[in-house]
Amino acid sequence: MAADSLGNPHIIYGDGTSLKHTYFNGSFWNIETIEVSSGSIEDTDIAIDSLDHFHVSYVVRNMGDGIRYAYFDGISRNTEVIDVATESYCCAQFVSI
User: Fold this and answer.
1) What is the pLDDT of residues 32-81, one digit of tens each?
2) Can you spell out the DSSP letters for 4-45?
3) Are strands 2-3 and 29-36 parallel, antiparallel or unpaired?
4) Distances (CA, A) of 47 to 9, 39, 41, 64
5) CA distance linking residue 31 with residue 34, whole number of Å
6) Would you call 3 helix, strand, or coil by DSSP?
7) Cystine design at 72: which of 1, 42, 53, 67 (Cβ 3.0–4.6 Å)?
8) Burial group, residue 19, by CB count within 10 angstroms (0-12, 13-18, 19+)
9) What's the pLDDT score for residue 86?
């Protein structure tokens, strides 16, 4: 969990094969899906930058998947593959941003 400049909480989590970003805007909770994957999304971590944009690291557990990075650039949500799994079970147990 991380807080934005107004102190509002942001939570990132894997919901099966979906990466979810949940945040409080001061009045109500919002839930958005950042990515839907073919593997289980685990080991999530979130940071909020000075512009209140999120940065997320996470692991997708599936052959050909691995460590990923997602972020909001002020216009759109983006995802990048950082490391690809070469074994039948992914490469990392814990990631941090």
Assistant:
1) 999 998 888 988 999 999 999 999 999 888 766 788 999 999 999 999 98
2) -TT--EEEEEEETTEEEEEEE-SSSEEEEEEEE-SSEEEEEE
3) unpaired
4) 11, 23, 17, 26
5) 10
6) strand
7) 53
8) buried
9) 62
Residue type at 20?
K
Tokens of 7: 């102190």
Round to whole Å and give the CA distance between 17 and 27: 28
Q: Give buried/exposed letters for 41-51 (b at 16+ CB in 10 A, else e).
A: bbbbebebeee
On the CB side of 54, CA atoms within 13 Å amount to 28
> How many residues are there in the chain?
97
- Pull the structure tokens for residue 31: 């839930």
